[in-house]
UniProtKB/TrEMBL annotation:
Membrane-spanning residues: 41-64, 85-110, 122-140, 152-170, 176-197, 255-274
Boundaries of every CAAX prenyl protease 2/Lysostaphin resistance protein A-like domain copy: 121-214
Positions in coiled-coil regions: none
Keyword terms of this UniProt record: Hydrolase, Membrane, Transmembrane, Transmembrane helix
Listed name of the protein: CPBP family intramembrane glutamic endopeptidase
EC number: 3.4.-.-
A GO MF label: hydrolase activity
Keyword Transmembrane helix: yes
Length: 291
Protein backbone atom coordinates (compact mmCIF):
# COMPACT_ATOMS: atom_id res chain seq x y z
CA UNK A 1 0.00 0.00 0.00
CA UNK A 2 2.80 2.40 0.89
CA UNK A 3 4.52 1.69 -2.43
CA UNK A 4 1.24 2.21 -4.30
CA UNK A 5 0.65 5.57 -2.62
CA UNK A 6 4.11 6.64 -3.68
CA UNK A 7 2.86 7.00 -7.26
CA UNK A 8 1.24 10.34 -8.26
CA UNK A 9 -1.96 8.86 -9.72
CA UNK A 10 -2.99 6.78 -6.65
CA UNK A 11 -1.97 9.73 -4.47
CA UNK A 12 -4.29 12.01 -6.44
CA UNK A 13 -7.32 9.74 -6.23
CA UNK A 14 -6.69 8.96 -2.55
CA UNK A 15 -6.48 12.66 -1.65
CA UNK A 16 -9.54 13.51 -3.75
CA UNK A 17 -11.49 10.75 -2.00
CA UNK A 18 -10.56 12.15 1.41
CA UNK A 19 -11.45 15.73 0.38
CA UNK A 20 -14.86 14.70 -0.94
CA UNK A 21 -15.58 12.32 1.95
CA UNK A 22 -14.84 14.99 4.56
CA UNK A 23 -16.77 17.61 2.59
CA UNK A 24 -19.95 15.56 2.15
CA UNK A 25 -19.79 14.19 5.71
CA UNK A 26 -19.50 17.66 7.23
CA UNK A 27 -22.27 19.01 4.99
CA UNK A 28 -24.55 16.16 6.04
CA UNK A 29 -23.85 16.80 9.73
CA UNK A 30 -24.46 20.55 9.36
CA UNK A 31 -27.61 20.04 7.29
CA UNK A 32 -29.01 17.64 9.91
CA UNK A 33 -28.00 19.71 12.92
CA UNK A 34 -29.36 22.96 11.48
CA UNK A 35 -32.29 21.32 9.66
CA UNK A 36 -31.24 22.88 6.37
CA UNK A 37 -33.41 22.07 3.38
CA UNK A 38 -34.49 23.60 0.05
CA UNK A 39 -37.41 25.34 1.73
CA UNK A 40 -35.29 27.30 4.22
CA UNK A 41 -31.97 27.62 2.38
CA UNK A 42 -30.40 31.09 2.59
CA UNK A 43 -27.00 32.52 1.57
CA UNK A 44 -25.94 32.59 5.24
CA UNK A 45 -26.71 28.89 5.65
CA UNK A 46 -24.93 28.31 2.33
CA UNK A 47 -21.92 30.07 3.81
CA UNK A 48 -21.89 27.61 6.70
CA UNK A 49 -22.15 24.67 4.32
CA UNK A 50 -19.36 26.17 2.22
CA UNK A 51 -17.09 26.06 5.25
CA UNK A 52 -17.27 22.27 5.01
CA UNK A 53 -15.21 22.46 1.83
CA UNK A 54 -12.66 24.79 3.44
CA UNK A 55 -12.29 22.40 6.38
CA UNK A 56 -11.90 19.45 3.99
CA UNK A 57 -9.11 21.29 2.18
CA UNK A 58 -7.37 22.34 5.39
CA UNK A 59 -7.41 18.73 6.60
CA UNK A 60 -5.99 17.28 3.39
CA UNK A 61 -3.33 19.92 2.66
CA UNK A 62 -1.16 18.79 5.62
CA UNK A 63 -1.86 15.19 4.59
CA UNK A 64 -0.57 15.96 1.09
CA UNK A 65 2.51 17.69 2.50
CA UNK A 66 3.36 14.59 4.51
CA UNK A 67 2.57 12.18 1.67
CA UNK A 68 4.60 14.11 -0.91
CA UNK A 69 7.15 15.71 1.42
CA UNK A 70 6.38 19.05 -0.18
CA UNK A 71 6.26 22.62 1.03
CA UNK A 72 3.10 24.70 0.75
CA UNK A 73 4.65 26.37 -2.29
CA UNK A 74 5.20 22.96 -3.86
CA UNK A 75 1.53 22.13 -3.34
CA UNK A 76 0.48 25.27 -5.20
CA UNK A 77 0.29 27.82 -2.38
CA UNK A 78 3.42 30.00 -2.73
CA UNK A 79 3.44 33.15 -0.63
CA UNK A 80 5.16 35.11 -3.40
CA UNK A 81 2.68 37.00 -5.61
CA UNK A 82 -0.28 35.34 -3.83
CA UNK A 83 -2.35 38.51 -3.53
CA UNK A 84 -1.46 39.70 -7.03
CA UNK A 85 -2.41 36.37 -8.59
CA UNK A 86 -5.62 36.16 -6.54
CA UNK A 87 -6.74 39.64 -7.61
CA UNK A 88 -5.64 39.08 -11.23
CA UNK A 89 -7.63 35.86 -11.32
CA UNK A 90 -10.66 37.60 -9.86
CA UNK A 91 -10.43 40.16 -12.66
CA UNK A 92 -10.21 37.38 -15.29
CA UNK A 93 -13.25 35.55 -13.88
CA UNK A 94 -15.24 38.78 -13.67
CA UNK A 95 -14.09 39.73 -17.17
CA UNK A 96 -15.27 36.43 -18.65
CA UNK A 97 -18.74 36.97 -17.22
CA UNK A 98 -18.80 40.64 -18.25
CA UNK A 99 -17.97 39.59 -21.82
CA UNK A 100 -20.64 36.87 -21.80
CA UNK A 101 -23.43 39.07 -20.48
CA UNK A 102 -22.26 42.00 -22.57
CA UNK A 103 -22.56 39.91 -25.75
CA UNK A 104 -26.00 38.67 -24.69
CA UNK A 105 -27.12 42.23 -23.87
CA UNK A 106 -26.03 43.49 -27.30
CA UNK A 107 -27.93 40.60 -28.90
CA UNK A 108 -31.02 41.50 -26.86
CA UNK A 109 -30.91 38.24 -24.89
CA UNK A 110 -30.10 39.78 -21.50
CA UNK A 111 -31.97 42.64 -19.86
CA UNK A 112 -31.88 44.26 -16.42
CA UNK A 113 -35.08 45.28 -14.64
CA UNK A 114 -33.61 46.64 -11.41
CA UNK A 115 -30.39 47.53 -9.63
CA UNK A 116 -30.18 46.82 -5.90
CA UNK A 117 -27.13 47.48 -3.77
CA UNK A 118 -27.22 45.13 -0.77
CA UNK A 119 -23.76 45.18 0.80
CA UNK A 120 -24.55 42.39 3.25
CA UNK A 121 -25.70 40.04 0.50
CA UNK A 122 -22.71 40.85 -1.70
CA UNK A 123 -20.24 40.28 1.16
CA UNK A 124 -21.90 36.97 2.05
CA UNK A 125 -21.89 35.77 -1.54
CA UNK A 126 -18.29 36.91 -2.07
CA UNK A 127 -17.17 34.85 0.92
CA UNK A 128 -19.19 31.87 -0.29
CA UNK A 129 -17.70 32.14 -3.78
CA UNK A 130 -14.22 32.30 -2.23
CA UNK A 131 -14.87 29.27 0.01
CA UNK A 132 -16.10 27.21 -2.94
CA UNK A 133 -13.22 28.33 -5.14
CA UNK A 134 -10.60 27.54 -2.48
CA UNK A 135 -11.61 23.95 -1.82
CA UNK A 136 -12.55 23.08 -5.41
CA UNK A 137 -9.31 24.48 -6.83
CA UNK A 138 -7.32 22.56 -4.24
CA UNK A 139 -9.22 19.36 -5.07
CA UNK A 140 -9.31 19.60 -8.86
CA UNK A 141 -6.23 21.63 -9.78
CA UNK A 142 -4.03 21.21 -6.70
CA UNK A 143 -4.70 17.46 -6.47
CA UNK A 144 -6.20 16.15 -9.74
CA UNK A 145 -4.04 18.25 -12.09
CA UNK A 146 -0.80 18.88 -10.25
CA UNK A 147 -0.20 15.28 -9.12
CA UNK A 148 -1.21 13.33 -12.26
CA UNK A 149 0.86 15.59 -14.53
CA UNK A 150 3.98 14.25 -12.78
CA UNK A 151 3.20 10.87 -14.35
CA UNK A 152 1.13 11.51 -17.47
CA UNK A 153 2.13 15.05 -18.41
CA UNK A 154 0.25 18.33 -18.40
CA UNK A 155 -2.10 17.71 -21.35
CA UNK A 156 -3.46 14.37 -20.16
CA UNK A 157 -3.64 15.63 -16.58
CA UNK A 158 -5.70 18.60 -17.79
CA UNK A 159 -8.16 16.24 -19.45
CA UNK A 160 -8.35 13.96 -16.40
CA UNK A 161 -8.88 16.80 -13.93
CA UNK A 162 -11.50 18.48 -16.11
CA UNK A 163 -13.49 15.27 -16.65
CA UNK A 164 -13.56 14.62 -12.90
CA UNK A 165 -14.47 18.29 -12.31
CA UNK A 166 -17.33 18.03 -14.79
CA UNK A 167 -18.68 14.77 -13.35
CA UNK A 168 -18.68 16.17 -9.82
CA UNK A 169 -20.90 19.01 -11.08
CA UNK A 170 -23.34 16.63 -12.82
CA UNK A 171 -25.81 16.42 -9.88
CA UNK A 172 -26.07 20.23 -9.58
CA UNK A 173 -29.42 21.94 -10.03
CA UNK A 174 -30.32 22.75 -13.66
CA UNK A 175 -27.29 20.83 -14.98
CA UNK A 176 -27.61 19.41 -18.51
CA UNK A 177 -25.24 17.61 -20.86
CA UNK A 178 -24.21 20.94 -22.38
CA UNK A 179 -23.66 22.34 -18.88
CA UNK A 180 -21.09 19.60 -18.29
CA UNK A 181 -19.41 20.59 -21.54
CA UNK A 182 -19.20 24.19 -20.34
CA UNK A 183 -17.92 23.22 -16.89
CA UNK A 184 -15.38 20.85 -18.44
CA UNK A 185 -14.16 23.55 -20.85
CA UNK A 186 -13.79 25.94 -17.92
CA UNK A 187 -11.88 23.31 -15.96
CA UNK A 188 -9.54 22.34 -18.82
CA UNK A 189 -8.82 25.71 -20.34
CA UNK A 190 -9.50 28.57 -17.96
CA UNK A 191 -8.86 27.15 -14.49
CA UNK A 192 -6.30 24.57 -15.61
CA UNK A 193 -4.58 27.12 -17.82
CA UNK A 194 -4.42 29.56 -14.92
CA UNK A 195 -2.67 27.00 -12.75
CA UNK A 196 -0.19 25.95 -15.44
CA UNK A 197 0.64 29.56 -16.28
CA UNK A 198 1.59 30.49 -12.71
CA UNK A 199 2.22 27.09 -11.11
CA UNK A 200 0.11 28.53 -8.30
CA UNK A 201 -3.45 27.87 -7.17
CA UNK A 202 -4.02 31.53 -6.31
CA UNK A 203 -4.78 32.53 -9.92
CA UNK A 204 -7.44 29.82 -10.51
CA UNK A 205 -8.91 30.46 -7.05
CA UNK A 206 -9.32 34.11 -8.04
CA UNK A 207 -10.77 33.19 -11.45
CA UNK A 208 -13.23 30.75 -9.87
CA UNK A 209 -14.31 33.32 -7.27
CA UNK A 210 -14.87 36.10 -9.80
CA UNK A 211 -16.60 33.71 -12.22
CA UNK A 212 -19.21 32.50 -9.68
CA UNK A 213 -19.73 35.85 -7.97
CA UNK A 214 -20.34 37.86 -11.14
CA UNK A 215 -22.45 35.22 -12.84
CA UNK A 216 -24.77 34.84 -9.89
CA UNK A 217 -24.60 37.84 -7.55
CA UNK A 218 -23.70 40.65 -9.94
CA UNK A 219 -25.47 39.81 -13.20
CA UNK A 220 -28.18 37.87 -11.36
CA UNK A 221 -28.52 35.08 -13.88
CA UNK A 222 -27.94 32.11 -11.58
CA UNK A 223 -25.40 29.31 -11.75
CA UNK A 224 -25.38 25.52 -11.61
CA UNK A 225 -22.47 25.53 -9.18
CA UNK A 226 -22.27 25.77 -5.42
CA UNK A 227 -23.30 29.17 -4.16
CA UNK A 228 -26.00 29.59 -6.79
CA UNK A 229 -28.34 31.23 -4.29
CA UNK A 230 -28.37 34.99 -3.91
CA UNK A 231 -31.25 36.74 -2.19
CA UNK A 232 -30.34 40.15 -3.59
CA UNK A 233 -28.15 40.22 -6.72
CA UNK A 234 -26.75 43.57 -7.75
CA UNK A 235 -28.58 43.40 -11.09
CA UNK A 236 -31.97 41.80 -11.47
CA UNK A 237 -31.06 40.12 -14.73
CA UNK A 238 -33.30 38.26 -17.17
CA UNK A 239 -32.04 35.90 -19.86
CA UNK A 240 -34.42 35.43 -22.77
CA UNK A 241 -32.88 34.16 -25.97
CA UNK A 242 -32.00 31.00 -27.92
CA UNK A 243 -31.27 28.39 -25.29
CA UNK A 244 -28.44 26.94 -27.35
CA UNK A 245 -26.61 30.27 -27.07
CA UNK A 246 -27.71 31.60 -23.70
CA UNK A 247 -28.17 28.38 -21.76
CA UNK A 248 -31.51 29.65 -20.55
CA UNK A 249 -32.46 31.15 -17.17
CA UNK A 250 -30.34 29.84 -14.30
CA UNK A 251 -27.92 27.94 -16.53
CA UNK A 252 -25.63 30.27 -18.51
CA UNK A 253 -22.81 27.70 -18.30
CA UNK A 254 -24.61 25.53 -20.84
CA UNK A 255 -24.80 28.34 -23.41
CA UNK A 256 -22.49 28.56 -26.40
CA UNK A 257 -21.75 32.23 -25.64
CA UNK A 258 -20.07 31.34 -22.35
CA UNK A 259 -18.43 28.22 -23.77
CA UNK A 260 -16.88 30.16 -26.67
CA UNK A 261 -15.69 33.06 -24.49
CA UNK A 262 -14.18 30.59 -21.98
CA UNK A 263 -12.48 28.73 -24.84
CA UNK A 264 -10.80 31.89 -26.11
CA UNK A 265 -9.66 33.00 -22.64
CA UNK A 266 -8.47 29.51 -21.73
CA UNK A 267 -6.58 29.09 -25.00
CA UNK A 268 -4.71 32.33 -24.31
CA UNK A 269 -3.78 31.15 -20.81
CA UNK A 270 -2.54 27.79 -22.12
CA UNK A 271 -0.60 29.49 -24.91
CA UNK A 272 1.13 31.71 -22.35
CA UNK A 273 1.82 28.69 -20.13
CA UNK A 274 3.38 26.80 -23.05
CA UNK A 275 5.47 29.82 -24.06
CA UNK A 276 6.71 30.10 -20.48
CA UNK A 277 7.82 26.45 -20.59
CA UNK A 278 5.34 25.32 -17.94
CA UNK A 279 3.91 22.36 -19.88
CA UNK A 280 5.35 19.09 -18.61
CA UNK A 281 5.87 15.94 -20.64
CA UNK A 282 4.79 12.49 -19.38
CA UNK A 283 7.29 10.90 -17.04
CA UNK A 284 8.53 8.36 -19.60
CA UNK A 285 9.07 10.97 -22.31
CA UNK A 286 10.79 13.29 -19.86
CA UNK A 287 13.15 10.49 -18.90
CA UNK A 288 13.88 9.70 -22.55
CA UNK A 289 14.55 13.38 -23.21
CA UNK A 290 17.34 13.38 -20.64
CA UNK A 291 19.12 10.31 -22.07
Amino acid sequence: MRKLLGHPLPQAFALLFVVLAVFFALQAVLATALQIGPENFTPVLGLLLGLAGVVAALITIPLARRMERQSLAGLGFPAKNAVRHLLSGFAVGAGVQAAVFGIMAVAGWYTVSAVTVDIGSLVTMTLLALYVAFWEEWAFRGVMLRLPEKAIGSWWALVLSAVVFGLIHAPNANATALTLVGVTVAGVLVLGGGFLLTRSLWLPIGIHTGWNLFENSVFGAGSTGAGANSETPLLRGHVNGPQLWTGGPGDPESGLVLILVATVVGAVLLFLAARAGHIRAPRGKAALATV
